[in-house]
Amino acid sequence: MANFSKSQVPQFSVEVYQNEFLPEGGREVNAIVTVTSTGGGTTGGIPLADAAPAYGAGQGPGAAVVLMVDCSGSMDYPPTKMRNARDATAAAIGTLREGTRFAVVAGTHVAKDVYPGNGRLAVADAQTKAQAKEALRKLSAGGGTAIGTWLRLADRLLNSADVSIRHGILLTDGRNEHESPEDLRAAMDSCAGRFTCDARGVGTDWEVKEVTGIAAALLGTADIVADPAGLAADFTHMMENAMGKEVADVALRLWTPVGVEIRFVKQVAPTVADLTARRTEANARAGDYPTGSWGDESRDYHVCVLVPEAGIGQEMLAARVSLILPGPAGAGTPQTLSQGLVRAVWTDDMVASTSINPQVAHYTGQAELAQVIQQGLDARKSGDFDGATAKLGRAVQLASASGNQDTAKLLSKVVDVVDAATGTVRLKAKVAEADEMTLETRSTKTVRVKK
Known about the structure:
Layout: E1 11-17, E2 21-22, E3 28-38, H1 48-51, E4 63-70, H2 79-94, E5 101-107, E6 111-115, E7 122-123, H3 126-137, H4 147-158, E8 165-172, H5 181-191, E9 196-202, H6 208-217, E10 222-225, H7 231-243, E11 247-255, E12 261-269, E13 273-274, E14 280-283, E15 286-294, E16 297-306, E17 315-325, E18 335-346, H8 350-354, H9 358-381, H10 385-402, H11 405-411, E19 415-419, E20 424-427, H12 433-441
Parallel strand pairs: 2-18, 4-5, 4-8, 8-9, 9-10
Antiparallel strand pairs: 1-3, 3-16, 5-6, 5-7, 11-15, 11-17, 12-13, 12-16, 14-15, 17-18, 19-20
């Protein structure tokens, strides 16, 4: 891990891919916005100390991490599950960067901060890591599951620290049976924008939509670890990614002229996530969409707007996309990290106006792929086998056409593929529960367009 001085933050760039040409009367404008962050650059000559809270231990922006470990009674069946969870959490703690604030929460029908305790965060060093691992050895399984209480405790702990990166890692093996769905939803809503959270389901007795819903609300990742023996490697990888984040709370700001309507704003790579409803108004003509924390990475967003009708030869700025970093502690003037423009040009050249930009076409297909997988699996669960066959067949066709080989492999465990090109499939008579849950959990993962 590279160390970054206080004068360094990632350097952001914005690239816009679109076909700006519309036919006479055309109104819908689509663009793929690629945002790339490269670590260690400077942002417009602005010291990070002026754009975000303080660093920790002189090694990049200050970070705090809370690990939430399911300790409900079901974690004892089989007993190796609890042992693997303890070992995985210990491995993740071993990956913590020196100076990172951290805590461990044991989650049942209540939440308890088992290390360091008393509502505090520890500062990672050799001694505190050893103490935390010792505390983990004392964890035992017993009680119910109320994940909202875990999230609320993590939020209190994380926000007790003056750091810029706040991150949670949550592990569960069961359904959220000891609080109402409304209570969990309220907890997620109260934590949204305050910290990011990666969520993992271990085994096959948990609810996919609960785990993926937590990750989506808190701008993190979700996955299944069907075999508890794989937890240590997964937790270590998650923690390494968390330690690679260098700047938090970056917003995608969309400015539109009078008369332009926003249809949607979606993240489309590395996963599909609809951000449309998460807009907060920045001013009369602009709104911000949250993107969470960034390290050395690149993501793609699909912006779709409706412009007023115009005549041949006219052109307009349909939208301006900016990356915005809030001022210190949310106060002061936000900093613009990078910008890109979305244009509309009306033409009578039918070839130009009917051509679909390759990036737009690719990600429209990837978004549909995620949707039809969900619809197909839901149809299969409800006994609508004809509907399931049609939807999952379309998913196979889209995965094959786009080169999404990982999703194609997962689909092949649920359906027998007769002809991938036409989407001709047969439902398998028997499907392992872990295979079905893996497909559902990973349905939103996309492949990037070949540029």
